[in-house]
User: Fold these one by one.
Assistant:
Number 1:
Amino acid sequence: MRTRITELLGIRRPIVQGGMHYVGLAELASAVSNAGGLGILTALTQRTPELLAAEIDRCKAMTDQPFGVNLTFLPTFTAPPYAEYIQAIIEGGVKVVETAGRSPEAHLPALKAVGVKVIHKCTSVRHALKAERIGCDAVSVDGFECGGHPGEDDIPNMILLPAAAAALKIPFLASGGMADGRSLVAALALGADGMAMGTRFLATQEAPVHENVKQALIRATELDTRLVMRPLRNTERVLNNAAVTSLLEIERQRGDQLTINDILDQVAGIYPRVMRDGETEAGAWSCGMVAGLITDIPSVQGLLDRIMEQASQIIHERLAGFTRLETSAGQAAALA
Ligand SMILES: Cc1cc2nc3c(=O)[nH]c(=O)nc-3n(C[C@H](O)[C@H](O)[C@H](O)COP(=O)(O)O)c2cc1C
């Protein structure tokens, strides 16, 4: 399939794997790229720029297809050396960077100077327009459904995507709630040029996470996510568990007085324990509502093949069937 996103990124299928902390390692990123999409390594999962450089090398050994690196500018306890991570990305020859959190403006000149394509992840039309204005090549528009940080506006993709399509000139990815061929066709119908998925890729054979995490996604329904850290204006959609329930209780009790220190036990240092060690109840970890649509753990290649086949079937049979009916009804009316 060809869209403005496949052209921009040099990929065969308009499907991108969003950056995921402790998930976006070479195993998953290379599998997605080998299957025709764009896999993305998550920079800050690597504790130092040197370790990111090594992970980029590892990924290059596992795929000859393009892959990207996610650089997340989120409030962290100590600011990482972003410029050095960018240097590792550039020296590694990576051609696509997904930025998220705050504006990537300060880092764009370094990336653009060597022709790296920048996709900025946004949760609102105004932020997407700002990304376009400062020179990003594309945006990934994350609706309220998404796993991770949906922002503070709470606009679901059924509204956000057409609004973005009406406003933007640069290509964009629909992100949040995407799972299958229906999602891809819907994303294209709503004006996007492709889709990005996070949670769905977590439940694949190649995702380098503990089996407990994959099984938790299979068990989860669309009712099983919660929004945490809203009082800190750092809202995150996570899978519900006992730690999340107690986090929400602390938020309720502390009200306006809440600080990050009140909830450190539930949010700090959780990802390695969940993703690597399988302690799915250790604390809050990102998960989208789309968990309710996940019922299996396919290979990444199998997942992407299935998505493309289902999308093609929907476009050529189901939707084309409707327009044929419309045309024949119109012809019958004209003859009557
Ligand atoms: C476990 C997990 C970890 C994530 N970590 C990051 C991250 O470190 N940086 C980032 O920009 N987005 C992160 N995300 C968000 C994804 O890149 C993507 O935008 C989101 O998952 C899309 O919504 P979906 O889960 O409904 O597909 C994470 C998502 C999940 C599920």
Note: Strands lie at 15-17, 39-42, 67-73, 96-101, 117-122, 138-142, 172-175, 195-197, 225-228, 236-239.
Number 2:
Amino acid sequence: MKCGKEERIVQPARREIKTAALSFPEREDQTLDPRDWEALRTQAHRMLDDILDYTKNIRERPIWQPIPDKVRMRFRSTLPVGPSSLTEVHQEFMNYILPFAVGNAHPGFMGWVHGGGTPVGMLAEMLAAGLNANLGGRDQIPIEVERQITSWMQKLFGFPENATGLFVTGTSMANFIAIVIARDAALGCDVRRQGVAAESKRLTAYGSAALHGCAGKAMDLCGLGSEALRLVPTDNRGRLELTALARAIKTDRDAGFAPFLIMATAGTVDTGAIDDLTSLATLAHGEKLWFHVDGAYGALAMLAPDLAPRLRGIERADSLAFDFHKWGQVPYDAGFILVRDGTLHRNAFAASSTYLRRETRGLAAGAPWPCDYGPDLSRGFRALKTWFTLKVYGAEAMGAAISRTSTLARYLEHRILNTPELELLAPVELNIVCFRYRADDSDRVNASIVVELQESGIVAPSTTVVDGRLAIRAAIVNHRTGQSEIDKLVGCTLALGRRITKSFTAAGHAAPKIAATDSSPRAKWESELREVESQMASDPFSLDLRFQRASLLSELGRLVDARTEYMKVLEREPYHLAALNKLGSVLIATGHRTAAGIAYKEAVVRHPDDSTSRVNYGNYLLEESERQEA
Ligand SMILES: Cc1ncc(COP(=O)(O)O)c(C=O)c1O
């Protein structure tokens, strides 16, 4: 090198390298690939057969079983230094891992919110592992597959074309990413260098008391603190209360805080409630706040035409988090974040490093890369199993599976309402049903019921707390679940409830108290029903008594009986105003919408001055047009 003056170039001292140390073995068997590919192929087919059989015969297995100590101890061994044969290790998997998993592929699994997976997703995951693609960046078709899914999701959720999307582990991570983008949008990108400690603004975010716990964790992770997330009360359907929210925002502004984000939920984890997304979007944008929707499992209800209208307003979100691994049945994990403004998304995560230099040609082309949209650099090919699932089954079948699980939830609701020993604890909005066995020491009795149900291996719900009461919580997410699993859940709960309350009583705990002696509205209706029925025995032709009986049956949730009774009233008096309207409501609740429309219309035609009939029929027509539009 020639510079102005002679420079002495300092060379590192040369180490003498023995050439023997550099002589690499030529043989392929020094790699980690098999020496005998044919033997591997045979073993691979066996492994594939075993796992396919597992899914095919899943109904014959217990959902879950307690792990024996001996099995647990097997997984406390030291790091294996020498090799084992693949056949042996696979056998270990079959004997000691496979039987002791959670069992969410089983149709009787109803705990938490777990998807059931599909064989198609499993095979795609195998291909992804074979390809061993790293989707952090670079010019490769796997990233185009991910972009394809982003584009499908843009259209599904009514987001614009410049919206960006990213696969992540799950909604916990997706919510975190959304909060970071919202934070940076509120504070400006300098916060990425200077940190929130340098900020004078104290940001506050808002969600309902039913918001998933990961939101508070995310606030903590991005330096804002979990207490800066204000949890606003919910209404009687578990939805964020708008007036309380507006009040909370104003109180914070008056106190010098800087509100920046509203987090709505489409399908709360406890009860499946869907916040009023349209009103929240209006409020958020009016207040100039970021509007995020946590649609972890509920967002994919968009695929089901009968449920999609309930998500109205989701298209106005600034960001949307959801999982394909829940209602989308894609094997774990496959979370997703969709962001309306791709530039803000990139601003929050893009970073330059010399070793990640982008080019316009070659492997380093194709910018922006997925690593510009989230915290991960190395990323697996989650998009492939999602792409396979959506292509092989099609959106219609996926939507039908989602819709079916919601119908099953309504069937479970119906069974609960028709079983006096059981009590429904929350309205059934989507596919989650919270209920309990009636007993004095109810929390303890129901906690024991759930543990025993899980240990039975027949059905596996989980628990939650609704209005301070422990609930048996059945989240029907799995596409394999059918009516027989719901019947088993009800049957086993009753059998266990009776046994457990008896054993508690024998052991000196409080005895169960079912309806008759309590002073709840239900007990009152039941006693009134008995009274009406005894009067009907001596006056079987009284129309009034029959109508009263129908109304009480309806209050008690015995909807099919109530329907029959209202029809009997109408057989005798076809224009009975209250019977027409009440029959309409029962028909809606039992899924007979067209017949409900006829009843409501008849009420309007026969009683044109009655405002209740007009409201009922008006609401019905509105919902029908929304359904058709959807
Ligand atoms: C409403 C809601 N948000 C967030 C999450 C967290 O999602 P993940 O487990 O995929 O991180 C869940 C999980 O059930 C959820 O139901």
Note: The pocket of pyridoxal-5'-phosphate is lined by residues 113, 170-172, 212, 214, 265, 267-269, 294, 296-297, 323, 335 (CB under 6 Å).
